[in-house]
UniProtKB/TrEMBL annotation:
Belongs to the UPF0389 family. The keyword Zinc-finger does not apply. It comes from Ramazzottius varieornatus (Water bear). Keywords: Membrane, Transmembrane, Transmembrane helix. This is Uncharacterized protein. PANTHER family: GROWTH AND TRANSFORMATION-DEPENDENT PROTEIN, UPF0389 PROTEIN CG9231. InterPro entries: DUF1075 (IPR009432). One of its GO terms (cellular component) is membrane. It is found in: Membrane. The chain crosses the membrane at residues 87-108. The keyword Magnesium does not apply. The lineage of its organism: Eukaryota, Metazoa, Ecdysozoa, Tardigrada, Eutardigrada.
Length: 137
């Protein structure tokens, strides 16, 4: 059942009234941050570094050497360095995975050329496990 014109008018007038009231009193309609939130947003958060974090900062080229890193570094700098480090490690692992895959392909082709197969290995292993087998490792 569609809303009656009176109900629609009441809803529209309430919305218009809320919009008018909020424009007249902006301090009440907007969120006012607390003093603590203002203090933390203006201050830089520093953190003490572990030896591994110092190496990450040097490896991501934020600092030239471990000796030149200050005792405390801004949290944003450390966060960006860790993100870059994580990215580099992921790329290195992807490259190693591709190289390992190619290595296994080459190894499998060489084994096939020698006449080796997984089926033959499985049959030999089962032959050794049989109770009447003469050669047992």
């Amino acid at each position: 059942m569609p809303p009656s014109p009176v109900t629609t008018l009441a809803i529209c007038s309430r919305a218009a009234c809320r919009q008018l009231c909020s424009s007249l009193r902006p301090s009440l309609s907007r969120h006012v941050p607390s003093q603590r939130a203002l203090a933390t947003s203006t201050q830089k958060c520093y953190q003490e570094l572990s030896p591994m974090q110092k190496r990450i900062l040097v490896w991501t080229k934020k600092y030239p050497s471990v000796d030149k890193i200050p005792e405390e570094v801004p949290e944003a700098v450390m966060s960006k360095a860790v993100d870059k480090f994580r990215w580099k490690v992921a790329v290195i692992l992807m490259v190693l995975t591709v190289l390992g895959s190619f290595g296994m392909i080459v190894s499998g082709k060489r084994a096939a050329a020698r006449g080796e197969s997984m089926t033959k290995r499985g049959l030999e292993w089962h032959e050794q496990l049989r109770p009447g087998s003469t050669s047992r490792d």
